[in-house]
Structure formats: structure tokens, C-alpha cells
Amino acid sequence: MGSYASMVRFHEGKLRNLRLPSAPSSLLLALDIDGTILEEGHPLSERLVQNVQYLRRVGVHICITTGRSVPATVPIVQQLGLGNTWIVSANGSLIGRYSTDTGYVLTNQYTFPVHEVLARVLDAMPDALIGVEDSPAGFRVLRPFPPGELRETIAVQSLEELGAKPVSRVVVRNPLMNNEEFATAVAKINLSGVQSAIGWRAWLDINPPGTSKAKGLQIVCKNLGVDSRHTLAIGDGANDIPLLQFVAYGVAMGNANPAVKHAADSTTLAVEDDGAAAVLEAICAILPGETVFESPSIAD
């Protein structure tokens, strides 16, 4: 797909053609985390953090839109240096604001009854690992997940306890299956009336009907007074498709699958090649005022 520098120039041209407003405070940028700004097993790249901090400093609104839970998202927000930002988490089921002064404050929460959904999942996959998220605190699970996964687990409970009240999300994981086997099993589950998306490593998210990252971003737009025609987003997963279709300029990562790329307006480099940073640097380039970097060498 070319070098980092050529990708910056490519997106700069695309952005200039959009004729976005010149005032940075009129823009809203939505960023997915895993597979977009963060490569598994690696820290955030220095130039990505530098770009994010510059954009925020000049007034561009930045919203983190993720399938992660709140406890798993806030550390990334802190590493990005975002002292005051909106977070759309759990694929749009939880929306809130984070600031260094108040911490995380939940503003919108969407829930749905899950007793029947849990039963259907276990009928199709009796050995599946299941968790439910019903608050920004974390997950309650039927059985512990593999080490390193779902670190936000706060309790192990019975199936009856998990389904006793409406929740914001159900996560389903089956480490005994590969992705293809998992997708085949999921296809046999009746998931009508809910939102669902298969993620990484035989992982399924099930959310309340009508929720999505896009719907969450609409709420953020309303709160910030930003026109949806002045929004941008970068993502890599199936749960990003509605978001990439909603914004004025949606960019799929180079590591995204064909369906995600098809939904986007454009594509960038893969996460391991700093594709998100290239898009952010292009946004920096179209804004009025001084450039973000003293030397262009960072874009080589």
C-alpha cells in the first residue's frame, strides 16, 4: 500500500476534497482501539500519541469508540494523554466522559434481557465461556476466561444469576474452536432481535437491539454540538462497519477484513505499520496553523 509518507499524502488529499470546516473544534474524530491504534502485544506508537495530543491541543474532539469495557479503555485514554474525552464502550451500550478531574462518568447505558440469549448460546456451544457486562465496573462470568483475557472480571456466578437482570452486553468465547468453527456454531444460534458481531479469536459480542458505535457517536455529536458531516473515524472490525458508514470520512485499517474495507471510504496501512497515525497526521496537515512536527522525518 506504499510508505507511511505516501499514505499521509493520500489521506491529506482525500480530506482536502471533503472541504471540512477549518475550525478544529468543529471536527470529531472517533478511534477504535484494538487492531486500530493498538497492536496486540505492543505499546501505543510514539507518533500516534504525538498526533492525538496535537489534534486535541488545537481543539479537535476525540472520542474513543471500542468494544472494550470501561476499565480496559481508561488506561488507553490515559496513555494517549486525553484529559477530557468521550468514550463509547461495549460497542455502544455504554457512553460516558472521562476527565482527569472526575474520572469516568457514565451518561448513557442501554440494556436488554439475556436469559433466553444465554440459553440459546449454551445450547449451541455447551463448552462456551460466557460473560455479561452490566456496569462500567466490569464483567460477571459463568466460568473464568483464559489468563490475560477479560481482566475486568468482577465475579463468577451461576447461569441463573447472570441472566437475572438486563445487562449491557454478553460476550461469548470458545478457546476450543478456531475462528471458522466458531463462526459456524454462531450461525446456528438464533440472535434475532439483538446486535451481534464476531471479533477476534472465536469471540462474539451480543448487544442490545439498536446499539452500535455509530449510535453512540451520534449521542456524542449531540452533546458536543458537532455536525455529523464533520466526523471522521478509523476502525478495523465488524463492529466498526456502522461507524465507518456513518461518519463523513471512514477509514479501514489495512489489517481489516474485506467487508470492513468495503464499508469504509478509504483504507490505510495495517496497525503494525502505523496506519492510524498516518491518517491522524493527514488531519494535522489540513488544519490551519503550524505543523505538528518540527521535522518531516517522522513521516519517512
Automatic annotation (TrEMBL):
- GO molecular function terms listed in the Swiss-Prot or TrEMBL record: magnesium ion binding; phosphatase activity
Q: What is the lineage of its organism?
A: Bacteria, Bacillati, Actinomycetota, Actinomycetes, Actinomycetales
Q: Which domain of life is it from?
A: Bacteria
Q: One Pfam family this chain carries?
A: Hydrolase_3
What the entry lists under Gene3D superfamilies is as follows: 3.30.1240.10, HAD superfamily/HAD-like
Please state what the protein is called: HAD family phosphatase
* Annotated source species: Mobiluncus mulieris
The record, for InterPro entries, names: HAD-like_sf (IPR036412), HAD-SF_hydro_IIB (IPR006379), HAD_sf (IPR023214)
What are the GO cellular component annotations? cytosol
